[in-house]
Structure formats: C-alpha cells, structure tokens
Design a protein that fits this description.
Rossmann fold, 17 strands, binds S-adenosylmethionine, 29% strand, 2 domains, elongated, 7-stranded mixed beta sheet, single chain, 366 residues, alpha/beta
Length: 366
C-alpha cells in the first residue's frame, strides 16, 4: 500500500472497513457513493449502488468499470447507506458531510474515510456535532468514521453546512466560485502574471486548458476582440459550471464552447491558434509534474502549426525540456516571485515526424 496516494489509501481502508464491520452495510436498500472512486469491492453491490463524481478522469474510470453511466448524474432520493471520500477543502467537506446525511433515509448510515493527514479526527468530531453519536476505526494512517441519521441530527448546523456547497460571489462580486475549487476565493498570482504577459495579438481559435472558474478565459474574452472562438476545458464539473456563469457575464462576441474533459486524454490536433493554461500540478496532496507535462503534450498536439502555447507554472516545475522538444521556438518570458511564464511556438512539421515520442514523457523530460 506504500506507493498509494492518500486518497487511494483512504478508499482501500474504507472498503476494508465495509468488509470487516458487517454492521456497516445494511442487508438491503440503496447505497450511494459521493466522490466515488473505482474499487473491485464495490462490484458485489450491483444495482444497489449509485456513484456520483464531479472529476472527469475519475468519472471515466467509474464508467469503464461499469459502476456509473456515461453522463454525470447526481445522487437523488434517499439511501440506506452513503459512502463519502472527501477532498481537502474544509467548507467543501462540511457540505459533503451534511449532504451525505441529507441523502439518508431515517436510520441510514453515512460512512466516511479520510487519511489522518487530511484532518480525519477533526472531521469525525464535526460529524458528531452534526449527527450525534459516531463510530470509528483507525487503520493504515486513515480513519473510517460513521454516523446514523437519527433524531439527534442538528438541523441548523446541517442547513449552515449545506450552504457551503452553493456558488458565491468573489473578487468584489466579479466572479462566481465555490469552496473546493482551485484558488476558489481569489485570483491566483500565477494566473494574474500570465494575463500581464499575454500579447495583444491573441486571436482566432483559442483554448484554455484547466480553466477552473474561468479567470483566464474571462480576461481573454474581455481583452482580445479578435478571438473568434474559445474552447474552455476543465475536469471539475463544478468549476466548469462556475466558468459558464462567469463567461456569460463577459458577454463575448466570440463563440464559447465548454468541455467537461480530461485534458490529459488529449484535446484534438491542429485546431487552435493559441492555447493558454495554468496547468494543475497536484494530485491530492502530492505534487505531480507529470500532470503539467501531459497538459503540454495535449497543447502541443492541439495547436495549429505556428500556433502559440502560453503557460504559467511554479518555477521549480520541469517543463522547459518538453516545451523545447515540442516547439519550433520556446522561451521563458518572465520569472517573477515563485512563477515563470513560458511560451512555445508550434512546429510546422507534425511532432511524430521529428521523432518526439510524447507517449513516453519521461524520456522527453530527463
Ligand atoms: C492551477 S488550476 C488553474 C485554474 C484556472 N485556469 C486559473 O488560472 O485560475 C488547474 C485546473 O486544472 C483542472 N484540472 C486538473 N486535472 C485536470 C485534467 N486532467 N483535465 C482538465 N482539467 C484538469 C483543475 O480542476 C483546476 O481547475
């Protein structure tokens, strides 16, 4: 289990607990899984199980495993058992706990698992404040804890926590966002730096990869009137919903298309004059430079010959080599504070004809 990330470990521990604590799984009734992830131990639940997942790569995996339909579907109605694997933002987790309880039928159980480093003990206490008595077990640096929906439920607290899952206006009311999204309540310094560097010539068909709640897209639509179309790619469904709301307010003349997509799976080839991004570099708590490298790979393929990639990244991230390998010319435009802005101009020739094997990223990086 040592190579697992914290979320994988929590999933494994949750499934172990369901197997070893027979009282956690009711003999019948519906089972809902919030922020679901694939695990073989879920398959025996068959038709009883409904999974919900906002993050596209995980949603695709659930669909491939036969645990979810091809489209997003929110859990609805009432369940005998709700499972929850929270993410790392506090208000988002409180909202999830409240929603988990809300989805239960009277007497139903919410079972949660978190890595200890993600504040498991603290959330167990908070669940006790909401629902009354909780049970728990500790294993593999994780904590599984559960509560039943009973008359001990504190409805006021539940209402308060549920409001954390509503979109809020941020940055003096200019944007809508939600706890749990990247830099949810302020403009990221790196993204701001990138907007200060983007040249006035940005035009034509443009893509924003990993658009979050839409700061970069909003900036470009307002600033560059020669943009004909903007394709907004984002894996987090909630972030994409916020981006839609924000960009509608930008009242663009350009055609804007929204994609709930995993950018690392590619975004087409030879389509864009400009690709802009502040790529993700974390998977959970663990920095993962491969994620950004895959974004660069997707961008390199998606640009038209002569098209430009503009990206901002933390200075320590090893992106230059791949950018060089995939571009006719590339440069560090600026380094400022902990960020750098990089630019690459797409080769006229296809990448494959230059012998660049992007499928083996490690080769290109080291
Ligand atoms: C560093 S944030 C940048 C957000 C926004 N562009 C900004 O400048 O504020 C990276 C974004 O990429 C999204 N993301 C992470 N993995 C992704 C993937 N595989 N495909 C598409 N988007 C992804 C995250 O949800 C996050 O919104």
């Amino acid at each position: 289990m040592s190579s697992m990330n914290d979320r994988d470990l929590a999933l494994e521990t949750l499934m172990l607990a369901l197997r070893s604590e027979a009282s956690l799984v009711p003999a019948d009734g519906r089972i809902g899984f919030l922020r679901a992830r694939v695990h073989a131990g879920l398959l025996p639940f068959g038709e009883r199980l409904a999974c919900e997942q906002d993050f596209k790569p995980a949603a695709v995996e659930l669909h491939s495993a036969g645990l979810m339909g091809p489209d997003y579907k929110a859990l609805e109605g009432k369940y005998a058992l709700v499972l929850l694997l929270p993410e790392r933002q506090k208000q988002q987790t409180l909202a999830d706990l409240a929603r988990g309880i809300d989805l239960l039928e009277e007497g139903g159980k919410l079972v949660v698992c978190l890595h200890n480093d993600w504040g498991a003990k603290r959330y167990e206490k908070l669940l006790a404040e909401l629902a009354g008595e909780v049970g728990s077990i500790s294993k593999s640096h994780c904590r599984v804890f559960w509560a039943q929906k009973t008359r001990m439920l504190q409805p006021d607290l539940m209402t308060e926590w549920l409001t954390f899952a509503q979109s809020k206006q941020i940055v003096e009311g200019r944007f809508w966002s939600r706890p749990g999204l990247f830099s949810w309540d302020e403009i990221d310094d790196g993204s701001r730096l990138l907007t200060e560097q983007l040249p006035d010539r940005v035009h034509g068909s443009v893509a924003d990869l990993g658009a979050g709640w839409g700061f970069l897209s909003d900036f470009m639509l307002r600033k560059f009137s020669a943009i004909r179309s903007l394709d907004v790619y984002e894996a987090d469904r909630i972030a994409l919903e916020c981006a839609k709301k924000n960009l509608a307010a930008a009242a663009p003349g350009a055609k804007v298309r929204y994609h709930w997509d995993d950018v690392t799976a590619g975004v087409g080839s030879g389509k864009f004059d400009y690709v802009v991004m502040n790529a993700p570099f974390h998977e959970g708590r663990r920095p993962d430079p491969m994620l950004g490298l895959r974004f660069i790979e997707a961008a390199a393929n998606a640009l038209k010959p002569g098209g430009e990639l503009w990206l901002v990244a933390n200075r320590h991230l090893p992106y230059e080599k791949l950018l060089q390998a995939t571009s006719a010319t590339s440069e560090i435009v600026i380094q400022s504070g902990s960020f750098k802005v990089l630019r690459g101009v797409r080769e006229e020739r296809p990448l494959e004809s230059r012998g660049i094997r992007l499928s083996n990223l490690k080769e290109v990086v080291h």
